[in-house]
Write a structure and sequence with these properties.
The complex is a heterodimer of chains A (about 110) and B (about 110). Chain A has about 110 residues and is mainly beta. In chain A, about 0% of the residues lie in helices and about 55% in strands. In chain A, a hairpin with a 5-residue loop joins strand 7 and strand 8. The mean pLDDT of chain A is about 90. Chain B is mainly β. Chain B has no helices and eleven strands. The radius of gyration of chain B is 13 Å and the shape is globular. The interface of A and B includes residues 40 and 48 of A.
């Protein structure tokens, strides 16, 4: 069974701090997505990474896919209250597979 | 309207009621999904439809019955639910056969079973 473990589970920080969220598995994935979900809403896609070692930047967010395509990280620089939410990673198999494997989630709270 | 929409956004029902959740995608995708999201649990895949045919039923109880009349619409029919079925039900869609398997989610229906 493929599993994606995220750490930490919960994170409370002050505005302006930096943080990193990790997504780890013993399985290889062909792609890795990161989503952010706010209370009462569906997950919103932040980024998709497909190449081992790939790094993508989205403003203050930096995403990295591990060289072996088994893990990923999300780094946020100078966090803001608007970054508050549940961060989910999700791993995909091949492009013909029908499902993503979702991580356990990291709940981030950024205080002003 | 663009993206993936879901109605209703909130639903409260008794255990003997029958209701339906609706999902509509405006992205031209050909695969649609139902997920259940409960507190403190990872997203649970319930059903997958590809090209309007069900390709996966993840051991979901028969009190949940999906329907996909065309590639843009997906329904989840509910009957004789239990209180433990209270959760956020999410619909997602994607383009089958593309290079990445990114799924796009709707806002969800918050279901409460009394």
């Amino acid at each position: 069974t493929q599993l994606l473990e995220q750490s930490p589970q919960f994170l409370s920080i002050q505005e302006g701090e930096n943080l990193t969220v990790y997504c780890n598995s013993s399985s290889v994935f062909s792609s890795l997505q990161w989503y952010r979900q706010e209370p009462g809403e569906g997950p919103v896609l932040l980024v998709t990474v497909v190449t081992g070692g790939e790094v993508k930047k989205l403003k203050r967010l930096t995403f990295q896919f591990g060289d072996a395509r088994k893990d990923s990280s999300l780094h946020i620089t100078a966090a803001q209250p608007g970054d508050t939410g549940l961060y989910l990673c999700a791993g995909g198999g091949s492009y013909n597979t029908d499902k993503l494997i979702f991580g356990t989630g990291t709940r981030l709270q950024v205080f002003p | 309207e663009t993206g993936v929409t879901q109605t209703p956004r909130h639903l409260v029902m008794g255990m003997t009621n029958k209701k339906s959740l609706k999902c509509e995608q405006h992205l031209g995708h050909n695969a649609m999904y139902w997920y259940k999201q409960s507190a403190k649990k990872p997203l649970e895949l319930m059903f997958v439809y590809s090209l309007e045919e069900r390709v996966e039923n993840n051991s979901v109880p028969s009190r949940f019955s999906p329907e996909c009349p065309n590639s843009s619409h997906l329904f989840l029919h509910l009957h004789t639910l239990q209180p433990e079925d209270s959760a956020l039900y999410l619909c997602a869609s994607r383009s089958w056969g593309t290079a990445t398997d990114t799924q796009y989610f709707g806002p969800g229906t918050r279901l409460t079973v009394l």
